[in-house]
Amino acid sequence: MRKIVEHALIIRHREIVPTYFELEFIAPDIARQALPGQFVHLRVTRSLDPLLRRPFGIYNVEQKIGSVTVFYRVVGRGTAMLSDLHTAETVDVLGPLGNTFSIPSTMQRAVVVGGGVGIAPLVYLARVLAERKVEVMVLLGASTAGFLVGRDILKRLGVDYMVATDDGSEGLKGHVTELLERMIDRKRFDYIYACGPEPMMVKVTEIAQQNGIPGELSLEEHMACGIGACLGCAKKVRRPADGQDVYAKVCTDGPVFRIGEVVFNA
Ligand SMILES: Cc1cc2nc3c(=O)[nH]c(=O)nc-3n(C[C@H](O)[C@H](O)[C@H](O)COP(=O)(O)OP(=O)(O)OC[C@H]3O[C@@H](n4cnc5c(N)ncnc54)[C@H](O)[C@@H]3O)c2cc1C
Ligand code: FES
User: Fold this and answer.
1) Which of 14, 58, 145, 160 is deepest in the core (most CB within 10 A)?
2) Is residue 103 part of a domain?
3) What CA–CA distance (Å, rounded) separates 56 from 120?
4) pLDDT for the residue 120
5) Pairing assessment for the beta strands 4-17 and 67-73 based on DSSP bridges
6) Which value, in Å, is the radius of gyration of the alpha carbons in the chain?
7) Which residues neighbour 251 within 8 Å (Cβ) at sequence distance 6 or greater?
8) Are residues 151 and 198 in the same domain?
């Protein structure tokens, strides 16, 4: 797959709730190739400071107009600078990068678990699963109702979703993994996809393994080059063939890994 740099016209950039932004830009060559799980590497200003691009999962693609959307949270200098870009300006985009979620042909019922802004790359996945007639349920977790990500798109797509909030302001009061435990008892999911904070991913792994359900996790490791050249994103994984722990590059070997493969806290 060819990596492309596009000077993409921003057609929508809005703050949904404080610090949470949706950014849509026209990048037809990237849109044509983008698959669920992949990410784009954005230059957050037109200058060379900061030098490094910032990675964001692909949240949605509209093939008709050749647009790609990302959903991001402002956490530091780079994302704060990105949030200053306006509609009708351009943003320099490299992508699509990384591997993709797999969609086994035998899959019938999938559950998609997203914590906070970790739901961003899973919304495009849910859309593709639904288009392929896989029965899909999305479980969304956030600290409070205002920070639940992706509901509008999921509603528009007609994808089922359920909610857990830490403060109980909407849905189940508690963690999204508690919702997963409850739903696993009721539905016979045959695949689990997840993205979110590390403690959530550890818990999802535990639940998947206890229930013998395969699946995949998308990691959001710190990155530099994004194309496999600097080792800035190395993560310990356990090789299934011989059980040996080795380092994988999240940007090119991932960001998607099989459940059980990632060695957390390493
Ligand atoms: C493949 C991939 C996909 C991603 N997708 C999204 C997405 O869809 N939406 C989104 O909001 N973010 C996403 N991220 C995370 C995003 O890239 C970072 O939040 C961003 O690069 C931070 O840049 P900054 O300059 O604002 O923060 P910095 O100034 O670099 O850091 C600010 C704070 O955030 C922490 N931080 C920075 N990067 C990360 C990271 N990758 N993981 C955890 N903590 C981090 C730093 O430790 C620091 O505490 C993704 C990351 C990867 C690797
Ligand atoms: S970010 Fe450079 S090798 Fe992954």
Assistant:
1) 58
2) no
3) 9
4) 94
5) unpaired
6) 18
7) 55, 97, 98, 223, 225, 226, 227, 228, 233
8) yes
In short, whether 221's Cβ falls inside 6 Å of ligand 1 is yes
Q: What is the mean pLDDT of residues 60-69?
A: 96
Average the pLDDT over 196-214 and give the result: 96
Atom of ligand 2 nearest to the CA of 225: 2
Ligand nearest to the CA of 72: 1
Four-residue CA torsion sign, 21, 154, 257, 266: positive
CB neighbours of 34 closer than 8 A, spacing ≥ 6?
58, 61, 68, 95, 96, 124
Its pTM stands at 0.95
State the closest ligand 2 atom to the C-alpha of 252, by its place in the atom list counted from 1: 4
Ligand nearest to the Cα of 232, by number: 2
**Same domain, yes or no, for 155 and 57?**
no
Is the domain of 67 the same as that of 168?
no
The answer, yes or no, to whether any atom of ligand 1 lies below 6 A from the CB of 236, is no
Of the three residues 97, 132, 165, the one that is the final residue of a domain is: 97
Q: Does 152 fall in a domain?
A: yes
Point out the domain boundary residue: 74, 97, 120: 97
Q: Are residues 248 and 162 in the same domain?
A: no
Distance 98 CA to ligand 2 centre (A): 10
Number of folded domains that form the chain: 3
DSSP state of 38: -
Give the distance (Å) from ligand 2 centre to CA of residue 66.
Answer: 27
Q: Could you identify the atom of ligand 1 that is nearest to the CA of residue 255?
A: 1
Domain that holds residue 72: 4-97
Any idea which of 25-29, 108-112, 181-185, 194-198 has the lowest mean pLDDT?
A: 181-185
Ligand nearest to the CA of 98: 1
